[in-house]
Amino acid sequence: MKKVLQWIGITAAYLGLGTMMFFGIPFLLGLLMVFGLESEHAAMDDHAEAALRETGLTAYTEYATWHDLTIDGTLTAFVMPKYDNHVDNTDLRAGLMALAAGTDGWHVEAVSAADYAARIPAGAAFLLPDVTFDAWFESAEDMAFFDQESGLFVHLREGEAPKSGTIRADKLAVPHDGYVYTMETHGGLLGDGTTYQALIVPEEKRTTLEATLSAHGDWHAGAVTHAEYVQLHDHEFYSLPELYPADDVIFDWWCYVNTYTRDHPDFVSEYTPDNSDFPAVMRAAGARPAGNWLIALFDPDTGLFIYYEYDS
Description:
single chain, alpha+beta, six-stranded antiparallel beta sheet, 16 strands
């Protein structure tokens, strides 16, 4: 009887182990993936949600986009979706505007792009939207602007000033004055997503950076116009924030790297993707979309440096 029970126990253990291997581990991995994505999205939502809460528009925090741009917690810019597709296509932007009209600190008055630039710290105003804001907010600690047509919401925590330093752009150290717009959507089990950064290189450091770029194998001299940048920026795959530099910006330096090919030099693909969204100088150099790639641009006149990488 003892041996029978022993064999029953061994058999049950093997069955339990097999069941766990077949069902349990995939289930556990699934849970980890779900929790990982939830944590990723929750972290990304924090800046936009906080902007709405801190300006009294708490009722709309659930609609805050996770494709926001933030400067070190000091300034956050994001686009409020136009519709809630789950509730009869409710116009969220109109609702937010109506709520602002009855909320302390908000003023339903037009703010021009020039007036906006005058109120925002100079280093943070370089991604100047070509809009007239419909409402603005101010308290002892916060300032915000909202444009109903585009959904653009900009929130500034006054009295906080980021410190100057450098960012790493594919092993290149790029100096900045403290105001670095950052969007990061990489995460989840596979690490897919987009990294986007935009900053101003201080004037006294632009010549040195140009010299560094001219000696760098991945960087090229050649004009990328504002219109070409906007077309590239608006590509459906990248989900970049709807903020653009001023119309007169022309990038004199550019970098494109197919990071998948760089990491897998023996890889050969028979697929030839369309590169019509790429600027002319990049098309001439053979740049084409890929599953993993990065682009960087620099305008030495304004000091605007933009970097983004895409992984799928």
